[in-house]
């Protein structure tokens, strides 16, 4: 069902990084296409960025081709490109929380978050969460979320994320993998408008274990879980050898690939579509996307940051908002 032309809220992220400049560049590209509302200190936008401060999100309904609507927060200290200021930390956190509140109260369609710098938030405001996603989950009151990297060419979900490779077979369990499959299935259905999602399940080991000769997890429990969930109505294939899952013909046979660890998922999507990959958080009660890059302090303020991932993140959030 189509929703009103509500804006995609864009939290500013770390002011010293490239977040403000890629947001401004994204607005310049999408101004006639996507309603947007930037949350942050307007002084941190690149000099000369056309913007207008709004008192209420309702003033940002509909595209704004002449100026980027800004829900302003005075951060106190100015932005110094490439140098995170701990004095900004509490404001950065507050902009994330404000964005979540706007989506939850129905005055914004979705939330797109610019990258944060966790050390700066910890140093300046005792940020207690492991990362951005965990903070969003805490704000939303949910425990289990799933990271999807998505582009027009491929969607991938790592079942385990930022852990050492030796820890993967210890943390990967029938319960955890089932949960990732369930959340991914629901996300594709509810946020991407795919009525009957098809999921490809990668094997953990080379050649999906090759009958137990290259690892036993597929034989011991992954195959049984996939078979069981197929009986429950899920459209699953696998466990499949990961080295044959990502060529063009194979990608036509599924809507998302469930991978067993970080690099198994991120290498193929970054190889196929490095600039256009978007981070989508599944399992939240609202839409959240983010560009698939960090703060990039080394190039901040130089006018050379590539805004493509931010453009795609905003565009995808808008599209998902109208598919949900």
Q: What does this molecule look like?
A:
It catalyses: 4-(phosphooxy)-L-threonine + NAD(+) = 3-amino-2-oxopropyl phosphate + CO2 + NADH. Its cofactor is Zn(2+); Mg(2+); Co(2+). Belongs to the PdxA family. It is found in: Cytoplasm. A divalent metal cation binds at residues 162, 207, 262. With 324 residues, the protein is an alpha/beta fold. It has 2 domains: 8-142 and 284-321, 3-Layer(aba) Sandwich (Isopropylmalate Dehydrogenase), CATH 3.40.718; 146-271, Isopropylmalate Dehydrogenase (3-Layer(aba) Sandwich). The protein is built from 10 helices and 12 strands. The chain has helices at residues 19-30, 89-104, 118-125, 132-140, 168-171, 174-190, 217-231, 248-251, 262-273, 308-321, and strands at 8-11, 36-40, 51-53, 68-72, 110-113, 146-150, 155-158, 198-202, 235-240, 256-259, 278-282, 288-291. The chain has a 12-stranded mixed β-sheet with strand order 3-4-2-1-5-12-11-6-7-10-8-9, sandwiched between helices. Strand 11 (278-282) and strand 12 form a beta hairpin. It starts with 7 loop residues before the first strand and ends with a helix.
């Amino acid at each position: 069902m189509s929703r009103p032309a509500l804006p995609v809220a864009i939290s500013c992220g770390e002011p010293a990084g490239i977040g403000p400049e890629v947001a401004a560049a994204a607005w310049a590209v999408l101004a006639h296409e996507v309603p947007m509302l930037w949350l942050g200190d307007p002084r941190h936008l690149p000099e000369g960025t056309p913007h207008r401060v709004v008192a209420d999100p309702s003033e940002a309904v509909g595209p704004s081709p002449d100026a980027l609507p800004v829900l302003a927060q005075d951060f106190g200290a100015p932005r110094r490109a490439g140098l995170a200021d701990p004095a900004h930390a509490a404001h950065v956190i507050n902009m994330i929380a404000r964005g979540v509140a706007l989506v939850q109260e129905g005055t914004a369609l979705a939330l797109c978050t610019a990258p944060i710098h966790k050390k700066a938030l910890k140093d300046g405001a005792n940020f207690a969460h492991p990362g951005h996603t965990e903070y969003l989950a805490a704000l939303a009151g949910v425990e289990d979320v799933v990271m999807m990297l998505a582009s027009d060419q491929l969607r991938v979900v790592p079942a385990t994320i930022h852990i050492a490779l030796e820890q993967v077979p210890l943390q990967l369990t029938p319960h955890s993998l089932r949960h990732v499959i369930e959340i991914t299935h629901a996300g594709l259905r509810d946020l991407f408008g795919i009525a009957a999602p098809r999921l490809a399940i990668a094997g953990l080991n080379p050649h999906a274990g090759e009958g137990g000769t290259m690892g036993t997890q597929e034989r011991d429990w992954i195959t049984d879980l996939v078979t069981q969930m197929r009986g429950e109505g899920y459209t699953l294939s696998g466990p499949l050898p990961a080295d044959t899952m990502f060529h063009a013909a194979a990608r036509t046979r599924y809507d998302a690939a469930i991978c067993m660890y970080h690099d198994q998922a991120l290498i193929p999507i970054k190889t196929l579509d490095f600039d256009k990959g978007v981070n989508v958080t599944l399992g939240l009660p609202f839409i959240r996307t983010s560009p698939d890059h960090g703060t990039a302090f080394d190039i901040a303020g130089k006018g050379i940051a590539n805004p493509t991932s931010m453009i795609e993140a905003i565009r995808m959030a808008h599209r998902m908002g109208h598919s949900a």
